[in-house]
Design goal:
By secondary structure, the chain is α/β, with parallel strands linked by helices. The protein is 43% helix and 22% strand. The protein has twelve helices and 13 strands. The strands form three sheets. It has a five-stranded mixed beta barrel with strand order 1-2-3-5-4. A five-stranded parallel β-sheet has the order 7-6-8-9-10, with helices on both faces. The protein has a three-stranded antiparallel β-sheet with strand order 11-12-13, with no helix packed on it. A hairpin with a 4-residue loop joins strand 4 (82-92) and strand 5. Helix 4 packs parallel to helix 8 (259-266) and helix 5 runs parallel beside helix 6.
């Protein structure tokens, strides 16, 4: 294919097609798994045409095989069946079409599918996608419920009718998708992501009626399981009947047994809630009445006690005690004051008797020199010294005479 071309030197379409065919012819045979979406068995034709689609992606390939190859499994497979094909890529140069030439076709049995689902289940569980701590509680009364289900299906009718019977004001954002076949997985994923991106949607319900294991396979697809695990909005799985357990049930925040039960799980019953409110109101009233009765009885018991029946008696009794204590206090204080007065007079008399002024009034005098110092010894003065004599009623000057 490494050719040197230019606008001036292009190569013909036939040559390009032959080169592509030569490259594809060098490819070996491969085993391919997919779902048959189209099957064309023309009467008398020696070749059977099939379209093999990937159940998880919007991709498909054309497959051809000789009639005898298909006849070996004609009673086991048809449109919608999962098969494993051993085929070699083949290029049809005249039309520029790629297809697979099948040499062997084998149906994928239910047992094999269940084994693969069990392996996938263990892998996803090991990653923690089914852990209980990841489950989020549903809102008590969602303002808007997202519903992903088949168009005009019994599941859609069951969810909408049951929910509106329970709470007529409930609103739904419905996304109709394929719920089986090759288009189911991408459409369900797109619908779930669209509803999850809407901030008004508070819970998402994915619902489908019952079916065979093959019909419910899209709800065990790994891409769908991971998309639900990434949702920020709580998701409720209501797939099939109670015995059906697709992997979506395990990753969802709540698994409902049927679409009808999903409506009951998501939307509260207005009648039941009204009855519950009335019951709680009655219980509250009874509790409050019982509490008031108990308090009233306690209050009556308190009021009937002597202390509260005749409250002034206590004051009167205490008033007499207060008068007695006051009288005793006054007598005690009087005695203390009288005693203190006598002691004070006695001390005053002693002080007066011992004071210098009293000594002077008895005729004594105090001699002082000119500097005011007191003469205590005759040897301290000499003849002719002038001294000041202080008596009780004044003083006078004296002169020291000769000693005798």
């Amino acid at each position: 294919m490494a050719l040197h071309t230019s606008p001036e030197a292009p190569i013909p379409v036939a040559q390009v097609s032959r080169l592509i065919g030569g490259w594809i012819d060098r490819l070996g045979a491969v085993w391919v798994e997919g779902q048959i979406t189209q099957l064309n068995r023309r009467p008398g034709a020696g070749v059977v045409f099939l379209t093999l689609r990937d159940p998880s992606h919007e991709m498909s390939l054309s497959v051809t095989c000789f009639r005898q190859v298909f006849d070996r499994v004609a009673d086991l497979v048809g449109e919608g069946a999962r098969v494993v094909v051993h085929a070699k890529p083949e290029w049809y140069a005249p039309r520029g079409q790629l297809s697979l030439r099948a040499a062997d076709i084998r149906p994928v049995g239910v047992g094999e599918l269940l084994v693969r689902l069990e392996q996938l289940k263990k892998t996803l569980a090991a990653e923690g996608l089914f852990a209980a701590e990841r489950k989020r509680p549903l809102p008590f009364l969602p303002r808007l419920v997202g519903l992903v289900t088949g168009r005009a299906s019994a599941a859609e009718r069951d969810v909408l009718e049951t929910a509106r019977q329970r709470w007529p004001a409930v609103r739904f954002a419905v996304r109709n998708v394929a719920v089986q076949g090759v288009h189911a997985v991408p459409q369900v994923i797109a619908a779930v992501r669209e509803l999850d991106a809407d901030p008004a949607v508070e819970v998402i319900v994915v619902a489908r009626g019952g079916g065979s294991v093959e019909d419910l396979l899209p709800f065990s697809d790994e891409r769908l399981v991971r998309a639900v695990a990434e949702c920020g909005t709580p998701v409720v799985s209501a797939i099939g009947h109670e015995p059906d357990t697709p992997l979506l049930d395990l990753v969802a925040d709540l698994r409902s047994r049927t679409p009808t039960h999903a409506a009951k799980d998501v939307v509260p019953d207005v009648g039941e809630e009204s009855a519950r409110i009335a019951e709680l109101r009655d219980r509250g009233r009874r509790r409050l009445a019982a509490l008031l009765d108990a308090q009233e009885r306690g209050l009556n018991d308190c009021v009937s006690r002597p202390a509260l029946a005749y409250p002034h008696r206590m004051v009167e009794e205490r008033a007499d005690q207060v008068d007695d204590l006051l009288l005793r206090a006054r007598r005690t204080l009087g005695h203390l004051l009288d005693r203190a007065g006598g002691e004070l007079e006695h001390t005053r008399a002693r002080v007066v008797a011992l004071s210098p002024a009293a000594t002077l009034r008895r005729g004594y005098a105090v001699l002082q020199r000119e500097d005011g110092t007191v003469v205590r010894d005759a040897a301290e003065v000499a003849e002719g010294d002038a001294l000041r004599a202080r008596v009780a009623e004044g003083g006078f000057t004296v002169t020291v005479g000769p000693s005798s």
